[in-house]
Request: fold
Amino acid sequence: MASAREQQKRRKTLRPHPARDQIVDAMRSYGQPISPTRLAEVTGNTLGSIAYHVRTLLAAGVVELAEEGRVRGAVEHFYALVPVNEAEINDPLVGLQKLCGVLTLPTGENGYPQPVPLDDEARAQMQKLLDTMRPKVQRIVRETAKRAAAGR
Reply:
């Protein structure tokens, strides 16, 4: 396993690549550990290509091996994005960013997507938006539960 310093160095030299961007986006959207086989199905890339790019992301410390499982007698590996900060993962505003697909944005330096931390102004604006959405979402869920209870 590469040291944190080696991973940081590799991450800085990691160049944009459409397949890696697709992998990171798919992993972010999926929200739980995912196998290269499933990533290949989701992205439409070959398993060989996905496996190569997952190893590259693993070496750079962007993803980590989350679990292993047996599938038809073989060991299947499941990978997850490396959480930068556990508190951020459970932050509802970060969840809103994830839902809207803007957890990361390409940087001007090398174009590779980087996390976008929210400043105080952005947090206040997003909290206000979340506060206006919450009652509407709660109403929709309550109505769905009523319909389900009524057998519709």
